[in-house]
Amino acid sequence: MTETFGQRFARFRKAKGFTQDDIANKVNVSSQAVSKWENDINMPDVGILLNLGEILGVSTDELLGKETAVPAKYEPETVKTDFARLMLRIIVDSNEGDRVRVNLPLQLLKIALDSGVAPTLSINGNGKAAEALSGIDWKQIYSLVEQGLLGEIVTVDSADGDHVRIVVE
Q: Residue 130 in contact with residue 123, Cβ under 8 Å?
């Protein structure tokens, strides 16, 4: 199920703790206009989109639902030369409006694995994404990166509306 503009906008608004009235006052429209955006009856004017993105702390592309996935690809030479700079990025957007962004240096993951500590990643509740994440084999992911795998390597879009991405860049 694809998230509509209204659903995405409402999720971003709630994540920031704003009411519809708060948003309406910030962009000088009626609260009924904001309600219509969230119910997918109308869309905001193009001139308002930049302000909405700034207020909600997201890009206009993200607000409009553009996928920014970086496809996974093997680049062994890049990994050999830039391994110390690689980051493991974990992006979680829950159906309840939670937005979590984790940027973990890959070397830190290696230290944790060498120490016998497997990172855990979960989403509150018992959603489908939480189930999928509980089975992530971090040693296998690390091994694939050592071999040159870069980009988006794990994607979970649950039936509950949770979105999780794990990217190495």
A: yes
